[in-house]
Amino acid sequence: MRIFITGRPGVGKTTLLMYVVEEVKKRGYKVVGFYCPEVREGGKRIGFKIVSISSGKEKWLAKVGEGKIKVGKYAVQSEAGEIIDEVKSALPSANLIAIDEIGPMEMSIPSLKDFINYAFSLNKPLIAVVHRSMKINGKIYVLTEENREGLRSKILNEVLQSL
Ligand SMILES: Nc1nc2c(ncn2[C@@H]2O[C@H](COP(=O)(O)OP(=O)(O)OP(=O)(O)O)[C@@H](O)[C@H]2O)c(=O)[nH]1
């Protein structure tokens, strides 16, 4: 089972994914993965964190400034590797893999690209937010203001049936 959620910025992709993650955890299943919230200062985006879903630990993924690997104006932070390694080592024990998000930024960071490819190779139930520009094989739900509430229970039930 692989479910992908996409849609325009701000439509509610992360909110829906985290709702499904919390509901699955409540039922005693182990969810392993990460999400990358943006960080704003004074209303301006200054970077992204990477947060482990199972442990809640977070580190800087990328922030405005100079660095070896840059994605647009953001420099990738080496400390992100601690979270990626932690999540990767927990993958074999996962009942569900959750990734937010699979996008141009994540795919241009070698360690994250490797992680995503490894996660796909495990053939475990997986739910992910994908950037609307990404081409990906699997069931894709395009979220809109109109369908996002209804899709919550539909997607949750689909995930639960695969566990
Ligand atoms: N009323 C309502 N608001 C929602 C719903 N889902 C998300 N929102 C709100 O919409 C805003 C954006 O939600 P996100 O989940 O961050 O949206 P997103 O698509 O992940 O945004 P990006 O990652 O920036 O593309 C937040 O303020 C949410 O509280 C929903 O189902 N109903």
UniProtKB/TrEMBL annotation:
GO terms for molecular function: ATP binding; ribonucleoside triphosphate phosphatase activity. Gene3D superfamilies: P-loop containing nucleotide triphosphate hydrolases. It comes from Acidianus ambivalens. This is Nucleoside-triphosphatase D1866_07680. It catalyses: a ribonucleoside 5'-triphosphate + H2O = a ribonucleoside 5'-diphosphate + phosphate + H(+). It comes from the Archaea. Coiled coil: none annotated. Has nucleotide phosphatase activity towards ATP, GTP, CTP, TTP and UTP. May hydrolyze nucleoside diphosphates with lower efficiency. Keywords: ATP-binding, Hydrolase, Nucleotide-binding. It is an enzyme of class 3 (hydrolase). Its EC number is 3.6.1.15. Belongs to the THEP1 NTPase family. It holds the Pfam family NTPase_1. ATP binds at residues 7-14, 96-103.
